[in-house]
Design brief:
heterodimer; A: 272 residues; mainly alpha; 74% helix; 0% strand; B: 444 residues; alpha/beta; D-Maltodextrin-Binding Protein, domain 2; 2 domains; 6-stranded mixed sheet; Bact_solute-bd_prot1 (chain B)
C-alpha cells in the first residue's frame, strides 16, 4: 500500500471514529421536526439552541456535571496515587506475593457489576456512605485500581533498572532516585492511567445509579437516562444536547493531557 | 520547571475536588424526615406537573414534606431491587404494575388495603384495582394512569385511498384492518409498520381482543397456552409482513420512536403505538402533516373460534390488556400514612387528570376521565378516553417468572415468527413447552 493508500485508510478510520460525535453535535442543534425526518441533513437547516435550553430546564445538568467532575477527578487522582508505588513495588520486588497479586488483578476484572452491587451497597450503608459522592469515589477507586496497577506495571517494567543503579552509584538516595529518575520516565504512563481512570469514572453508570438517590448528588451519566421513556421513547433533542455536553470534559481532558503523553515518553531517558 | 508546575497544578486540581467531595459526603442528605418520591415522569409537561404538585403538597404540609427524586424507566427495576435489598428504598414509588409482581412477592411493598382512603378507592374502577392486586389479594399500588395501544394514521393517505376512519365507538375488525392495510399499500407506501423491538407485551395484550390471554390459571397455577384465540393477532402480523407484504419487514426490529420518521414521510400509512406516543408525533410532525388517532381493531374479545377476529361484525369488543402506572409505598417506610396521604393528594381527580395530560395518557379515575380537556377530538384524546372502559388487566400481571419467560423464550420466538424464520407450530411449542417449564420453577 502506497503512502496515498495509507492516508486514505487513515482518513476512513478517522471518519469512522468521528462520525458518531459529528452526528451527536448535529442532532443537538436540530429542531424536533428535523430530528423526525426520514431524510436527515448532515447539518441542521436551522441552527437552534432550544435543545440545550430544554435540557437545562428539564434536568439539573450543571449540578450533575459538577458531581461527575468531582467524582471522576478524585477517583482518577487517588487511583494513580495508590497505583504508582504499588506497581513499582510489584515490578521491582518480585516475590510469590506479587505474582499472586498480579493474578488476582486479572481475576478481579472478570467480576460483573451486578455480582458485587448488593454486598457493596450493604457495606457502604454500614459506613453511611450511600448517597454520598465520597462513597462513590471510594467505589471507583477500588474498581479502577486493578486496571491502573496493571497499566502502570508495564510502564515501570519499561524503565531500565540500570538507570536506577546508575543514580545510586552517583549517590542518589532511593527517594531521590524515584522522584528524579523513575517518575519522570513514568509520566506518559501516569497520564495514560489518569485518563483511563477519569474516563471510566466519568462514564460509569450502574454504581452511580444505585448508590446516589438525591437529585442533587446524581452524576451526568444517570441524568442522561432521564430523557428516555418507556418502550424506547426518547426526547431526542435535549438528549443529544445533554450527551454532547457530557462528552466535552473527556475531550478537553484528552486535549490537555495528550501532549504530555507523548512528550514524556523519552524525557530523562538519555543521560548526557 | 515546567514539569514541576504541571505536577503541582495537577495535584491541586485533583486535591480540590477530593476535598469538596469529602465535605459533600460528610454533609450527606441524611434522614431529615422528608419522604422520597421516586418519579419516572420524563416528558417535560409531565415533570412540570409532578414537580408543581409536590411543591403544592410541601407548601400545605410543612411537617411532612416530600422530595421529588427523578428515576428512569430503563433502570428502575435494578435501582429498586438494590435499594430494597439494602433497606434504602424510596418511600413512595412510581412504577408500572407489570414491574410490581416480584417486588410484592418479595415483601418489599406495603399492602395498601388498610391505608386507602374510601374516596380514592371509589373513584378508581375495580378493573383497574385488579391490575395492582397480587398475592394474597393485597393491593400494592394505586393505578393512576394507563394507555391503550392505538393506530396513529396519516389522514391524507386514508382520504386518498377512500378509507373511512373508524370511530372509537365502532373500531375495525381485524379482517377490516387487514383490508384497509392492503388498500393503503402502494408504491413505496406500506399500510402499517409494526414496531416489534419489544414484541411480547403487545402480542400478549392484543390477544385479549380476540378472546385470548396467553396466560391462564389452571389448578391455581399460571400456565401458558397459545391456542387460536391467543395467536390470532400474531398471525395477522405475520401475514402482513410475510404474505400480503402490507407491513415492512424492516420495521420489526424498530422501537416505536424509530417508525415515526417513516410515518411522517408517508412510507407507513399507520403505526400501532402506545397512546402516549401522540406527544412525540405532535412534537416531531412536519408542518401541515395531518394525523389521526384510531382505536386498535377489535375481535370477539371472549369467544375464540374461526371468527375470533370479529369478521362477522357481531359481538365485537375492543378489549386489550394494559399495565397501568402505579404509585406504591415501600414496606420499610415507617410513615405509611403520610405516604398514602401524599398519594391520595396526587391522585385527586383534578390532579390525576393533570398528571394524565402531562403524560399524554388516560387517567384511571372516573371523575378525572370527565375532564373537558380530555374529552376533545384534538390530538385524539377522545379516542383514548373512549377506549379506557375496554381496558383490562394485562394477563401478565401477577405472573411470577413472566420476566424470564419474556427475555429467554418469548422475545426471540416472536421475533423469529414475525420475520418468517419459524412457523406458528414452532412458535407455539417454544412459548408453551419451554415457557411452562420456566413458570413451573417459580411455582414450586
Amino acid at each position: 500500500m502506497g503512502r496515498a493508500g495509507q492516508y486514505a485508510a487513515l482518513l476512513c478510520y478517522l471518519v469512522f471514529l468521528a462520525f458518531p460525535l459529528f452526528w451527536l453535535v448535529s442532532s443537538a442543534f436540530k429542531s424536533p421536526q428535523e430530528l423526525g425526518t426520514v431524510d436527515p441533513s448532515w447539518l441542521p437547516q436551522h441552527w437552534s439552541l432550544d435543545n440545550f435550553r430544554d435540557a437545562f430546564d428539564q434536568q439539573p445538568l450543571a449540578r450533575s456535571a459538577l458531581n461527575s467532575l468531582i467524582v471522576a477527578c478524585s477517583a482518577a487522582g487517588i487511583s494513580v496515587l495508590i497505583a504508582v508505588p504499588a506497581a513499582y513495588a510489584m515490578v521491582r520486588y518480585r516475590s510469590p506475593v506479587s505474582k499472586a497479586a498480579t493474578g488476582w488483578i486479572l481475576v478481579s476484572q472478570m467480576f460483573p457489576f451486578v455480582l458485587v452491587i448488593i454486598p457493596l451497597f450493604l457495606v457502604l450503608k454500614n459506613f453511611q456512605l450511600i448517597n454520598s459522592l465520597f462513597g462513590l469515589i471510594l467505589v471507583y477507586v477500588v474498581w479502577n485500581l486493578p486496571f491502573a496497577l496493571w497499566m502502570l506495571q508495564g510502564y515501570v517494567r519499561a524503565v531500565p533498572a540500570s538507570l536506577e543503579e546508575a543514580a545510586a552509584i552517583d549517590g542518589c538516595s532511593r527517594f531521590r532516585t524515584l522522584v528524579s529518575v523513575v517518575f519522570p520516565l513514568l509520566t506518559p504512563g501516569l497520564v495514560a492511567t489518569l485518563m483511563f481512570s477519569f474516563v471510566t469514572a466519568w462514564n460509569e453508570f450502574f454504581f452511580a445509579l444505585v448508590l446516589l438517590k438525591s437529585p442533587e448528588k446524581q452524576t451526568m451519566s444517570v441524568i442522561l437516562t432521564h430523557f428516555l421513556g418507556d418502550e424506547g421513547a426518547a426526547d431526542l433533542g435535549p438528549l443529544a444536547a445533554a450527551a454532547f455536553l457530557a462528552t466535552l470534559p473527556s475531550l478537553l481532558f484528552f486535549a490537555l493531557l495528550q501532549r504530555r503523553l507523548v512528550s514524556g515518553m523519552v524525557s530523562g531517558a538519555v543521560k548526557g | 520547571m515546567r514539569r514541576r508546575r504541571f505536577l503541582a497544578a495537577a495535584s491541586a486540581a485533583l486535591a480540590a475536588p477530593s476535598a469538596a467531595a469529602l465535605l459533600g459526603g460528610c454533609a450527606g442528605s441524611g434522614d431529615d424526615g422528608t419522604l422520597d418520591y421516586l418519579s419516572l415522569a420524563w416528558q417535560k409537561e409531565s415533570m412540570e406537573a409532578n414537580k408543581a404538585l409536590v411543591a403544592e403538597w410541601n407548601k400545605r404540609n410543612p411537617n411532612r414534606k416530600v422530595r421529588y427524586v427523578q428515576g428512569s424507566w430503563d433502570t428502575v427495576h435494578d435501582q429498586l431491587l438494590t435499594s430494597f435489598e439494602g433497606g434504602e428504598a424510596p418511600d413512595i414509588i412510581h412504577d408500572e404494575a407489570n414491574d410490581l409482581t416480584d417486588f410484592a412477592h418479595g415483601g418489599y411493598l406495603a399492602d395498601l388495603r388498610g391505608l386507602l382512603p374510601a374516596g380514592l378507592k371509589q373513584q378508581i374502577p375495580q378493573r383497574s384495582w385488579d391490575m395492582a392486586t397480587f398475592p394474597d389479594d393485597g393491593v400494592y399500588g394505586v393505578p393512576f394512569v394507563q394507555e391503550p395501544r392505538v393506530l396513529i394514521a396519516n389522514r391524507k393517505l386514508l382520504d386518498q385511498a377512500g378509507i373511512r376512519a373508524p370511530e372509537p365507538e365502532r373500531p375495525w375488525s381485524w379482517p377490516e384492518f387487514e383490508e384497509a392495510a392492503k388498500e393503503l399499500r402502494g408504491g413505496r407506501t406500506f399500510g402499517v409498520a409494526w414496531s416489534m423491538k419489544e414484541p411480547v407485551n403487545q402480542s400478549v395484550n392484543l390477544s385479549l381482543t380476540t378472546g385470548g390471554a396467553v396466560f391462564y390459571q389452571e389448578d391455581g397455577k399460571n400456565v401458558v397456552r397459545f391456542d387460536e384465540a391467543d395467536s390470532y393477532v400474531s398471525e395477522v402480523i405475520h401475514r402482513q409482513v410475510n404474505k400480503t407484504r402490507t407491513a415492512p419487514e424492516g420495521s420489526l426490529g424498530m422501537g416505536g420512536s424509530d417508525t415515526l420518521p417513516g410515518f411522517f414521510s408517508g412510507r407507513y400509512a399507520m403505526v400501532p403505538l402506545n397512546f402516549s406516543f401522540r406527544q412525540q408525533v405532535q412534537q416531531q410532525a412536519p408542518d401541515g402533516f395531518e394525523w389521526v388517532t384510531l382505536p386498535m381493531p377489535a375481535g370477539r374479545g371472549g369467544g375464540a373460534g374461526t371468527d375470533a377476529g370479529g369478521g362477522s361484525g357481531t359481538g365485537r369488543a375492543a378489549v386489550q390488556g394494559v399495565s397501568p402506572q402505579t404509585l406504591s409505598i415501600a414496606q420499610d417506610t415507617e410513615r405509611k400514612e403520610d405516604a398514602m396521604a401524599f398519594i391520595a393528594f396526587m391522585t385527586r381527580p383534578d390532579h390525576m387528570a393533570r398528571l394524565a395530560k402531562g403524560d399524554w395518557m388516560v387517567p384511571t379515575g372516573t371523575e378525572a376521565l370527565r375532564d373537558p380537556e380530555l374529552n376533545t377530538a384534538r390530538h385524539g384524546w377522545r379516542t383514548g378516553v373512549h377506549m379506557s372502559s375496554d381496558l383490562r388487566a394485562s394477563p401478565v400481571l401477577g405472573v411470577r417468572g413472566y420476566a424470564e419467560w419474556m427475555d429467554k423464550i418469548a422475545t426471540p420466538a416472536f421475533q423469529e415468527f414475525y420475520s418468517g424464520g419459524i412457523g406458528l407450530g414452532e412458535l407455539r411449542d417454544k412459548l408453551v413447552e419451554d415457557g411452562n417449564r420456566i413458570l413451573a420453577r417459580y411455582q414450586r
